[in-house]
Histidine--tRNA ligase
Amino acid sequence: MLTKAPRGTKDITPKDAYKWNYVEKKFRDICALYGYEEMRTPVFEHTELFKRSVGDTTDIVQKEMYSFKDKGERDITLKPEGTAGVVRAFIENKLYADTQPTKLFYITPCFRYERPQAGRQRQFNQFGLEALGSDNPSIDAEVIALSIQFFNEVGLKDLAVSINSVGCPTCRAEYNAKLKEYLDAKVDVLCETCLDRKDKNPMRVIDCKNPTCQENLTDIPYMIDHICDDCSTHFEKLKEYLTEMDVNFVVDKSIVRGLDYYKKTAFEIISNDIGSQSTVCGGGRYDGLVEQLGGPKGVSGIGFAIGAERLLLTLENNDIEIENPKSTDIFIATIGDHAKTKSFKLLKELRYNHISADNDHLDRSMKAQFKYSDKINAKFTVVIGEDELNNDSVTLKDMRASEQTTVKLSELVDELKKRL
Ligand code: HAM
């Protein structure tokens, strides 16, 4: 047990860490292009925050949260998603008082107690962003375009973008009444979860994967067919902006999303390569959430989150390789104790000149040191022994060209600067 990580968690070893660095940097770079700045919020928050935002009746809040009482008897939860914390921080730090919109991104671990499978973990990572302070559909188009540019630049071009409108409080109330009426007539065929959802959160029935529900609810009314004029104008404008940017999208009426805060735009980006866990990005608008969490009235918001594990899995399944940038410039092979001691001055000088350098820490033979130099992909190997020290000259081997030259020890750093 001590040598096994908890179920649903994964180590990221150096074999993969460079890939994470690559995609994280790409996400940061793309966010910067669109004017999004980084926001870091705590890994845990008050449990109430998620109940109020994600929603009491959602699977996340009901079944999946890592919640506990801390030693001060506070109800604490490890964040199951990034939006709630960012909105809380937006209010607490009064970011709404600055010029709007406030455009924020984050890279964060999240925690959900789910059944682990490929692309689904209990600790996973989200690349997310939130744009607060504008209810204009142009910002909906912007966040969708940003995510697509990010996916494109990491090598994924073949993605399905699905958008929907889940209405606003005005039209949702009317729709919910219609939907409830419809579902009341179907109580005989609804699964237990849907019977419960029917009264508490009827729209979530659309997301049910139970085959009996799916078979019997084919004529279920969809929100988008009942949205008000305001929601409709918003959605039409969004489509117009996306079309202008040549974004290939489809309207998928069945997108309801598993979190309660969504209003108007909801969207998902799908990759078909990794089986059932194919949604690499999900997001939408959450007008009203700022006020609901105690912030000022009328501050809108929209954002998305990309599942980083799913992204990397998709890249792998598409044979998109990320180059490992690791390579050592210089390996210093030494013969004898005196040479090893003296090599430290050179190592320091190289590293202070930002030339990466390594040496032997296992008292290997010369042959084994060269083998190691090969393994770490060193560009040059410098050989220092007693003779080399006495004559102020070292052997410099260009590992790629397999060529050897003699260089004055005192001139070595300058020589390497020229050659690297
Ligand atoms: P979400 O759809 O719950 O949305 O999660 C976003 C993405 O996180 C999913 O599409 C998926 O790629 C990834 N994900 C979710 N659960 C897991 C898991 N157990 N293991 C691996 N990856 C997972 C949200 O979290 C919203 N906060 C997104 C948002 C931001 N909406 C507005 N702003």
